[in-house]
């Protein structure tokens, strides 16, 4: 059972993670129905409050809310009163006044979701705050791996790429480790954070040295918009050393899994032919994202404990 908010994976227990994944199974079944919709959150309102561009995450949350029969509100920073000088807090308070029960918040500054949770009576879900966390991405990744393998216990998962700027990496490290996986970060030294010694991970600067040992290869998007110059010589050089191409795909175990949070930079972190390899579960991640976010919304709005024994 979640508390009122989902602000990050940090601070959640293994039991909480497993309960979310278990509930996601129930909502995944709903997604297979001819009409994949239930009245579980009828009369509730879910607001997408995105101060940073997003397509996949926003649409996934909105699809999840609508499948639960919730009403949705969509906020766009570019066309809002923020451009006229309104403060972040004022914006949050106005949206809350429309009767939102949940705010799905994305912002380019770490810690924003937590601050928003202090300004509203609504539940808050962190949909990405700067380079800090992206908890629902980590949860859907855990669910997708569990769906394929039954458990993450003992899996060897390599997270490859721009660790330094990745909120996805931070959340996934915490979630994968909590569920019993061994995590290896694979990146040039310039794309590793300075605090890495505090994390429960191994580190490699050479993908070819470790790729054959991986049960899952998780590729991160190169976040060039957050880079200062000189972190990598060029995207071409990065792709040569850390991109998953046909040659490296041959080095992967025949049972290994390939993941990417999207959107992919084809030809940089992954080639087009590899993205359609039979071991790629990238589209499964997208599908499972809706089911996982349905589970999160259902839990946060206090419906879970009273209906565990009932049909959703």
Keywords:
Rossmann fold; 2 domains; alpha/beta; 312 residues
Write structural notes for this entry.
This protein has twelve helices and nine strands. It is α/β, with parallel strands linked by helices and 312 residues long. It folds into two domains: 14-134 and 286-307, 3-Layer(aba) Sandwich (Rossmann fold); 135-285, Rossmann fold. The strands form two sheets. Strands 7-6-5-8-9 form a five-stranded parallel beta sheet. A four-stranded parallel beta sheet has the order 2-1-3-4, sandwiched between helices. α2 (56-67) packs across α11 and α5 packs across α11. The model has no long low-confidence stretch (mean pLDDT 92).
Task: Output the CATH topology of the largest domain.
Answer: Rossmann fold
Q: Judging from the principal axes of the Cα atoms, what is the shape?
A: globular
> Which percent bin holds the helix content?
25-40%
CATH class of the largest domain, named Alpha Beta
Sheet with the most strands, sense and barrel status: 5 strands, parallel
Structural class: alpha/beta
Arrangement of strands in the largest sheet: 7-6-5-8-9
CATH 4th-level superfamily of the largest domain: Aspartate/ornithine carbamoyltransferase
Number of domains as seen in the coordinates = 2
Radius of gyration: 19 Å
- Uncertain runs are none
Chain-averaged pLDDT:
92
């Amino acid at each position: 059972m979640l508390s009122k908010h989902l602000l990050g994976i940090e601070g959640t227990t293994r039991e909480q993670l497993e309960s979310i994944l278990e509930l996601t199974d129930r909502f995944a079944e709903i997604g297979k129905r001819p009409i994949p919709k239930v009245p579980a959150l009828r009369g509730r309102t879910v607001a997408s409050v995105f101060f940073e561009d997003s397509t996949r995450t926003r649409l996934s949350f909105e699809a999840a809310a609508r499948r639960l029969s919730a009403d949705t509100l969509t906020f766009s920073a570019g066309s809002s009163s923020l451009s006229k000088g309104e403060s972040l807090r004022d914006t949050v308070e106005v949206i809350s006044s429309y009767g939102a029960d949940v705010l799905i918040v994305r912002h380019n500054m770490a810690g924003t979701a937590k601050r928003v949770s202090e300004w509203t009576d609504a539940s808050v879900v962190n949909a990405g705050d700067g380079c800090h966390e992206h908890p629902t991405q980590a949860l859907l990744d855990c669910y997708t791996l569990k769906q394929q393998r039954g458990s993450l216990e003992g899996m060897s998962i390599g997270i490859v790429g721009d660790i330094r700027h990745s909120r996805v990496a931070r959340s996934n490290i915490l979630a994968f480790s909590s569920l019993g996986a061994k995590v290896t970060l694979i990146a040039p030294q310039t794309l590793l954070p300075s605090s890495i010694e505090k994390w429960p991970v191994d580190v490699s600067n050479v993908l070819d040295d470790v790729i054959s040992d991986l049960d899952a290869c998780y590729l991160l998007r190169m976040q060039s918009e957050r880079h200062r110059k000189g972190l990598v010589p060029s995207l071409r050089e990065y792709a040569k050393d850390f991109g998953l191409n046909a040659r490296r795909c041959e080095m992967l175990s025949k049972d290994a899994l390939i993941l990417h949070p999207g959107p992919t930079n084809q030809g940089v972190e992954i080639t087009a032919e590899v993205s359609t390899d039979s071991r790629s579960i990238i589209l499964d991640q997208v599908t499972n994202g809706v089911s996982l976010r349905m589970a999160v919304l259902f839990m946060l709005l206090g419906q879970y404990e009273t209906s565990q024994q009932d049909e959703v």
